[in-house]
Design brief:
The protein is of the alpha/beta class. The chain is built from 10 helices and 14 strands. This is Cof-type HAD-IIB family hydrolase.
Length: about 270
C-alpha cells in the first residue's frame, strides 16, 4: 500500500463519570470491548475527566488499553508513559481567593492537586462526597497556609444543592471573569479551573501532538465540562441521559459509549 493510501489516524476521547463509568463505578462490558476493538483498529484512545491521573489510571487498567489522559478537565495532559505532556496550575493568589470564595454554608469545597483531593474539614458531608472518588479524600486543615507556602492546585470542586451551586457559578463568573473556567461537572458538583483550562484545549493539544486532524476526531460526554471538548472535535456525541443543554450542543447522541463509538467508526462523514 502506498504511503498516501495509508488510513488516517483517528482519535476518540471519552469522558468517564456518567459516560464510561456509572454511579456504581462500573463500566459496561460492551463499552470495554468496543474500546478494545477500536484500539485494535488503530484508533488512539484518550480518557478526558475531572479526575486526577491516579484515578484515571484505574480506569485504564480495567480497559487494558493504552490511553492518553486529559486529567482534571485539562489541567494535565498525560502521555502513554504516564508522564505529563503539559500542565497548568493556579497562581497562589488566585487559588487563595477562590478557596475563600467557595467556602460557604451548605457547600463542600474540595481542593484538588495532581497528587490528591483535600478537604479542610473531613466532616460527614465531606466524607459522603469522598465516596465518589477512586482515591481517598484527605483532610488538610491548613489548606490556605499550605497554598500560600507553595502547594500546587489544579482545580476546585464544590458539591451541594443545585440552586446554591447555580448561584455560586454565576457569582464566580461575575467575580473572576476569564481568570477562571467554571461549569457543572456532576449533577451536584461544580469544577473551578484556572482560566482557559478545559477539556477542549487539552484535546486540541493532543491532536497537534499526534498529528491527527480535527476531522478524524470524536468525543463523548454527558456534562457541561464536556462542551469545550464537543467544540474541539469533529464528531461530538452526548449521552442520551445528559441534560438538554448538553445534548443540544452535541451533533449526535448515544445510549452507550459502544454505540457512539461504533456508529462513528462505521460512518462515512
Amino acid at each position: 500500500m502506498a504511503a498516501h493510501d495509508q488510513p488516517r489516524r483517528k482519535l476518540f476521547l471519552s469522558d468517564i463519570d456518567g459516560t464510561l463509568m456509572d454511579s456504581r463505578k462500573q463500566i459496561r462490558d460492551e463499552d470495554i470491548e468496543a474500546i478494545r476493538e477500536a484500539h485494535r483498529q488503530g484508533v488512539v484512545i484518550a480518557l478526558a475527566s475531572g479526575r486526577m491521573h491516579a484515578e484515571i489510571k484505574q480506569v485504564m487498567d480495567l480497559l487494558e488499553v493504552p490511553c492518553y489522559a486529559i486529567c482534571q478537565n485539562g489541567a494535565d495532559l498525560v502521555g502513554l508513559d504516564g508522564h505529563a505532556i503539559r500542565s497548568f496550575r493556579y497562581e497562589a493568589d488566585l487559588a487563595l481567593s477562590v478557596l475563600a470564595f467557595t467556602d460557604r454554608e451548605g457547600l463542600v469545597p474540595v481542593v484538588c492537586g495532581s497528587d490528591g483531593n483535600y478537604a479542610a474539614d473531613l466532616n460527614p458531608k465531606a466524607e459522603q462526597v469522598g465516596k465518589r472518588f477512586l482515591t481517598p479524600l484527605r483532610e488538610r486543615k491548613q489548606l490556605a497556609a499550605d497554598i500560600a507556602g507553595g502547594m500546587k492546585i489544579t482545580k476546585f470542586s464544590v458539591y451541594g444543592e443545585i440552586p446554591a451551586l447555580q448561584i455560586l457559578l454565576e457569582e464566580l463568573r461575575e467575580q473572576y471573569g476569564s481568570r477562571i473556567t467554571a461549569s457543572f461537572s456532576d449533577p451536584d458538583g461544580v469544577d473551578v479551573m484556572p482560566g482557559s483550562v478545559d477539556k477542549g484545549s487539552a484535546a486540541e493539544a493532543l491532536m497537534e501532538l499526534l498529528g491527527i486532524a480535527q476531522a478524524d476526531t470524536a468525543c463523548i460526554g454527558d456534562s457541561f465540562n464536556d462542551l469545550a471538548m464537543f467544540r474541539a472535535c469533529s464528531r461530538s456525541i452526548a449521552m442520551s441521559h445528559a441534560p438538554d443543554e448538553v445534548r443540544a450542543a452535541a451533533a449526535h447522541a448515544a445510549d452507550t459509549v459502544a454505540l457512539g463509538l461504533r456508529a462513528w467508526l462505521g460512518s462515512e462523514d
